[in-house]
Design brief:
Elements: H1 3-19, E1 26-30, H2 33-49, E2 53-56, E3 67-72, H3 74-78, E4 87-92, E5 106-109, E6 117-121, H4 132-140, H5 147-151, H6 155-165, E7 172-176, H7 184-191, E8 196-201, H8 204-212, E9 220-223, E10 236-242, H9 251-260, E11 262-272, H10 276-282, H11 295-304, E12 307-315, E13 318-325
Helix pairs in contact: 1-2
Length: 326
């Protein structure tokens, strides 16, 4: 294992150890049999290295007080030793229909066993976003070079969404979570020569690809976290966010930050070039009505965070919600 990959494993395990409840929690690692034993071994070693006691439930030694009890596999997950497991960790090596990760407290992407990435942690286990920056960069960084080819030419879909949103000519617009900058030329055309466009992303590799493809000619590129934007209150006329909210650990906090930097009457464009049902199907699950981007929850959430939804379209070919800053 290279030093970089060893560091990636160490970072993931440190986040998970930090997320463990105090006392004597019961933890189960579930996933494909070929992966769970190795992951559980690594995790147990990391727990012990942190100074906490940890026993595997198949071990002959007793657990005792202040001891992490660690099990592995679907059989253990279905039959907890008490009322329930305190922490369920799901290892995602594929996304089959009915992915058991939907009911887990922690989801670790292990499709590349040399490069684990935490994709979800239940907020009750750790401070929101404590793991967010390192894990999101670890997920998006290696994908930056092939991002545009992976998702094909969807610039016409971006252009149609921006046209429908009616962004103000001459306005100041930020593409928050701009990735490789596919929307930046479209946004530049919408605001015109007198307008100003900023592309925000916190993955350096994504911004690097945007520069390589000349998209810095259309916008100022800034490395920053969407949860703490480098703008003053009311500085923007509009925010464009493609696929952003689904990756934030707290969508409500994200919307409040977008509202903070947008003037009253300014526009918010939430977009994805695939409909939510099609996107969920690619990940082996179905859309739930309680998700933040479902129409009812999104309308309620935007009202609470300073927005008013004007248009909502979750078609098979795209997702588009347009809101106005209250």
């Amino acid at each position: 294992m290279t030093d970089v990959r060893a560091q990636r494993w160490a970072e993931v395990l440190a986040h998970l150890v930090d997320a463990l409840p105090g006392g004597s929690p019961g933890v189960v690692v579930d996933g494909p049999d070929a992966q769970t034993a190795e992951f559980a071994d690594r995790f147990a070693a990391a727990v012990r290295s942190s100074g906490r006691r940890c026993v595997r439930l198949e071990d002959p030694q007793p657990g005792g007080a202040e001891t992490v009890a660690l099990a592995q596999g679907g059989r253990w997950r279905a039959n907890p030793p008490g009322d329930r497991w305190d922490v369920v960790i799901w290892l995602r090596t594929a996304a089959p229909p009915g992915d058991p990760g939907d009911g887990a407290d922690v989801v670790v992407d292990l499709r590349d066993p040399r490069w684990p990435v935490i994709r979800y942690v239940d907020p009750r286990l750790t401070a929101r976003g404590r793991w967010y920056v390192s894990e999101s960069r670890a997920f998006f960084g290696p994908r930056a070079a092939t991002w545009d080819t992976t998702f094909g030419d969807d610039v016409p879909a971006y252009a149609a969404a921006v046209a429908e949103a009616a962004l103000p000519p001459g306005g100041v617009v930020a593409d928050v979570g701009c990735g490789t900058g596919r929307a930046l030329p479209v946004l530049r055309s919408a605001v015109g020569e007198k307008g100003f466009v900023v592309g925000i992303d916190f993955t350096p590799q994504m911004l690097g690809v945007a520069r390589e493809r000349g998209r810095a000619d259309d916008a100022r590129l800034v490395l920053a976290d969407a949860r703490r934007l480098p703008f003053g209150t009311g500085a923007l006329d509009a925010v464009f966010a493609a696929g952003l909210l689904m990756h934030l650990p707290d969508p409500g906090a994200g919307l409040r930050e977008l509202a903070r930097v947008t003037r009253p009457g300014g526009r918010l464009v939430l977009f994805h070039p695939s409909g939510r049902a099609a996107l969920a199907a690619r990940h082996g699950r179905t859309v739930r009505p309680d998700e933040a981007l479902s129409e009812g929850p999104l309308r309620a959430l935007t009202v609470r965070t300073g927005w008013q939804v004007d248009a909502y379209d979750d078609a098979p070919h795209r997702f588009l919600a347009v809101a106005t800053r209250a």
